[in-house]
Amino acid sequence: MARYYGRRWSGRNWGAYHVSQRQQLTNMFAGIDKDIQKIFFALNAQSLDTLFTKYGQLHGKNAEKYARKTFPNWKSGQTELSGQTAERLLNLIPPYLPQNIKYELIKKLRNHYLKKQSRHISTTHENWKVDVIPVVNELIKVSSDFKLPDVLIQRAAWLVNGDVDAANTILASLELEEAKVRANYLSVEFKRIQSLVDHIPHTQSIRHSIELPQGNINVVIEQEKQTFMQSIFGGGKVKSNGKELVSKEEIQTALVRQQSRGSLLNVALDDLTTEQKQQLVQNVIDARLDLDISQAKADQRFGNSTRDMGNTIQAVNSLEQSSKSDYEVKSSFQTASGTTDIHVKKNNNTVIIIVAIVIGVIVLAMMK
User: Fold this and answer.
1) 114-143 pLDDT tens trace
2) Does the residue 368 lie in any domain?
3) Closest CA to 238 of 323, 316, 312
4) Residue 142's closest CA among 171, 104, 163, 108?
5) 330 found inside a domain
6) What is the pLDDT of residues 13-29, one digit of tens each?
7) Would you give the distance in Å from CA 166 to the centre of its chain?
């Protein structure tokens, strides 16, 4: 019975060890070892023979004989590929794959290792641009700065070549384009938030989460504190029915900014060779289609949230006019750039208590 590192392995433990090694490989490489395994099993006889020959040159004749003999069992599922064999294939096969397939492998790795950031900001209606925009730019920069971990490159040397760089360039430009789609709406959305608060009394809190491919920015918009007299006699009234939270001109400006989408992708394509462009043509077409769909969804979310905000204003207006009792409204709106949450609460009991205290103080003063 074989001994490894001073430990005696039974057949069952040895199998469990290989399963564990394979799972570690799958986790580290975001599952692309499974994709490469499918490609391996789909090779025709000639390509398979060439691959086994190359496998033998790299890992010895005994390893080649074992691979040729065991291949039918691997393919049928009777025998699982060990972590060692899967890693050897992970290094051997990708350099010979077409650029468009390598693109999809890199996309999986990038999506796995591009860790989304999270930021929290407190700001005001007047200062949101100063506080928020630099953080947006900071998060967007994550795409440009991203590199695959060194540990991957050490175990799969093919990750350092021009084709991989080309794929990363395209994918980074798409992340930047998606962020641009969302960020272009920020001005009109923060203007709309200001208008929403102006239309609704008793706003306790309002938050806006900016959701980018690179991460989320959670913004708390501080509300003006009510004066003592406002807390007694009311914090204001609804100014209108909310049908026009933002002007048509401001909406049109936001839409015009979207016309330049795809420009960052074009710049990225200019850096590729003619061969790389030809091999990635379908990936780029799909990417442009995804951007168009994303833009259409953002436009739809903006329109829907504007309508829903108007409905919320009307609902609060009805509560304010028809009842003197307490009420509480919590609403969440999916917007072009993320999510807006508003909390409205009127508490007449507090007002009654304050009024009673004031009257009591006045009566005591008069008695003295």
Assistant:
1) 989 999 999 999 999 999 999 999 999 999
2) no
3) 316
4) 171
5) yes
6) 555 666 688 999 999 99
7) 22
- Where the chain has pLDDT below 50, the residues are 1-9, 228, 232-233, 235-238, 241-242
As to burial, measured by CB atoms within 10 angstroms (0-12 exposed, 13-18 middle, 19+ buried), residue 120 is: exposed
Sequence-separated (6 or more) residues with CB below 8 Å from residue 18: 80, 82, 83, 84
Q: DSSP of 315-342, one letter per residue?
A: HHHHHHHH--S-EEEEEEEE-SSEEEEE
State the Rg of the chain over Cα.
31
- Are 206 and 343 in contact, with CB atoms under 8 Å apart? yes
242 assigned to some structural domain: yes
What pTM was computed for the model? 0.78
State how many domains the chain has.
Answer: 2
Q: Name the residue among 117, 119, 185, 183 with its Cα closest to residue 145.
A: 117
Indicate the residue among 96, 126, 146 that finishes a domain.
96
Domain around 56: 11-96
| Residues sharing a CB contact under 8 Å with residue 103, sequence separation 6 or more, in sequence order | 167, 170, 280, 283
Q: 280 and 144: one domain?
A: yes
- Tokens 């692309």, residue? 32
Tokens 């009311």 — which residue?
234
Contact between 265 and 174 (Cβ < 8 Å): yes
CA end-to-end distance (rounded Å), the chain: 103
Per DSSP, the residues of 132-170 read HHHHHHHHHHHHHH----HHHHHH-GGGSSHHHHHHHHH
The DSSP call for residue 48 is H
